[in-house]
From TrEMBL:
Residues 9-134, 157-280 form the VOC domain. Pfam families: Glyoxalase. It comes from the Archaea. CDD domains: PcpA_N_like. It comes from Halonotius pteroides. This is Ring-cleaving dioxygenase. The keyword tRNA processing does not apply. Keywords: Dioxygenase, Oxidoreductase. The lineage of its organism: Archaea, Methanobacteriati, Methanobacteriota, Stenosarchaea group, Halobacteria. InterPro entries: Extradiol_RC_dioxygenase (IPR052537), Glyas_Bleomycin-R_OHBP_Dase (IPR029068), Glyas_Fos-R_dOase_dom (IPR004360), VOC_core (IPR037523). GO terms for molecular function: dioxygenase activity. The keyword Oxidoreductase applies.
Amino acid sequence: MADAPSTPGIHHVTCIAGDPQQNIDFWVETLGLRLVKRSVNQDDPSTYHFFFADAEGTPGTSMTFFPWENLRQGKVGSGQVSRTAFRVPEGSLEFWEDRFDDYGVDYEDRIERFGETVLPFYDPDGLPVELVAVEIPADDPTVPWTEFVPETAAIRGFHSVTLWLADPHQTEEVLRTMGLKATGTEESPGDTPGDERTRFEAAGTVGQYVDVLPTVEGARQGHGTVHHVAFQTPSDADQTAMRQAVSAHSVRPTQQIDRHWFRSVYFREPNGVLFELATSGPGYTSDEPLDALGEELILPGTFADQREQIEADLSDVTIPRADAVDADAD
């Protein structure tokens, strides 16, 4: 009998933003992530698709955005990823609080959750985000990007996502089918009193946690909300096995879709959160050299034939550079 499928963890998280330049400035300059890919939404090429990640675009590190400028403000609620958390090295949260003060970032007091220290904050669109201080192992697969933030504080990929769900039970069964294991439950600060947060752990080291929290809070998709969360299924065979496994839960996974840098399968889990299964390859260096990631507007497939029209419809954006920022400060 074949082994049951098991995801190493989160592959990427895709969110909805407003102003594209504001989005780039915050995630590159303020948070210190690398813009590893600048493209368009392959289902709506009238808007950008930005990918922010570690220095090499390692699976488990990329936060991506659709900056739909004319969309309304969203509201986080049931059936959504309510918070996305990133790993940072132990001892770096004071650095981040000072940086948030300098850049005018809206953040909250630190809290303790499952024995770890968490710093909640919000991006300019109101997206709830967290930094979690962890020990980064010597053989960690992520590669810190240090143009704006020193290695001792640099974000090192995902820590977790929190799912707000009206009825967690069915979703928890899907997570177990995907190979995640429940490792603990606690009532934690910042959550609704009386509600218990359950943590599920995947097999890998980056983006390995999914926290489940019951809520009936009403949701509205828009600026400052998560569009979907993608989980790693490194090979096509892994993805096929996972697709077959989750189908047993009355979800309706799509056929495989070529997303140029990875191949994807999508489905809504029983509470309505959009899940994606994403392969590891071909990867972000399949169409740009490593030292030039994010420099050009990449238009995959047939979109390349529409470059003139697509570029005319997109607003101009500038990638922050540390040397330019330093010169402006002098």
